[in-house]
Amino acid sequence: MESVNYIHNIPFISIFLTMFGGIITPLLSKGKLAQKINFIIVCIVGILSAVLLVSVWKNEQSFTFMMGHFPAPWGNELRAGPLEALMALTFSFVMANTLLGGAKFVQKDILPEKQNLYFVMINLLFGSMLALIYTNDIFTAYVFLEINTIASCAIIMAKGTGESIAATLHYLIICLLGSGLFLIGISLLYSITGHLLMPNIQQSIIQLTKTGEYAFPFAVVIGMIIIGISIKSAVFPFHFMLASAHPAATPPSSSILSGLVLKSFIILNIKMFYCVFTIDLIRSLRITNVLFLFGLIGMVVGSVS
Q: How far is CA 168 from the centre of its chain?
């Protein structure tokens, strides 16, 4: 009988714990209890991430975990290596400190009967960010991208004021534009390659680029996906959706939004570069030059502003 490698189950267990926390939290009547349970879950995920980081770093390995042991296209995969484990540990550390430091603001800004619902969204948001870090499947990435957006909107409008609701609608509309572009991009990519798993897509792209076929479709697909993720990560010039969200949200929500949510989208963008399209294709299409230009302009505009 094949022995079970428990280390390989850590990515799935981490995501499952956060989602399970989202299920049990609304059953609790007290917001403080929901907050404690949420904090404990984040700490457990942090400890598991540390164990995973030590294991993959020590063994110098990366691995994939097949969800439900169903092969593609029915199943999907999680991938974990030193970078993914380090990011999960970092996210857990920042989330734990944010919840610990922002506890008094949650008690002050959010109605007592809604505090448990606030932590439902925090659990779902944290789980979606872990899924974006670990996923090896682009459609799974899209699903958790949407969960991330909905949960982000919920924590922005948690105060329940008119200002927070207006800021949430503004944030939601802009984010849905990014989600739509990302979905169209991965749909076109699937129609070209016939795969959803990132390594399989990458192999198909390498073969097709050697023949010189689909050069323009690939440029369109990459453009849609990068612009879609860039909108959701609020990079210049798509940063304006955050102007109203931060002052309207409670401080812990604002901290999570800037410190973690936007960074999870950037991590997904990096994974698309290296695990799907290959950096050689990105450079051949001069996409890095465009990103450098916008980064330079954004730095200047930000300094002037």
A: 19
Question: How far is Cα 118 from Cα 155, in angstroms, rounded to an integer?
Answer: 6
Torsion angle (degrees, nearest 10) of CA 76, 147, 145, 271: -50
CB 46 within 8 A of CB 96: yes
Cis omega (within 30 of 0) for bond into 237: yes
Q: Which bin fits 102, alpha (ψ -120 to 50), beta or left (φ > 0)? A: alpha
**Chain centre distance of CA 29:** 29
Q: What is the pLDDT, as a whole number, of residue 3? A: 47
Q: Which amino acid is at 158?
A: A
Residue ranges of the chain with pLDDT lower than 70? 1-4, 68-75
Tokens of 16: 């499952």
CB atoms within 10 A of CB 217: 14
Do 249 and 92 meet the contact criterion of CB atoms below 8 Å apart? no
What distance in Å separates the CA atoms of residue 224 and residue 219, rounded to the nearest whole number? 9
274 sits in which H/E element: none
Pseudo-torsion of CA 192, 189, 136, 212, nearest 10°?
A: 60
Q: Which of the 8 DSSP states describes residue 29? A: S
- The identity of residue 60, as a single letter, is E
pTM for the full predicted model? 0.89
Asked if 239 and 245 count as a contact pair (C-beta separation under 8 A), the reply is no
Q: For residue 267, what are its two tokens?
A: 């991590």
Q: What six digits make up the tokens of 263?
A: 């960074």
Using the 8-state DSSP alphabet, how is residue 286 labeled? T
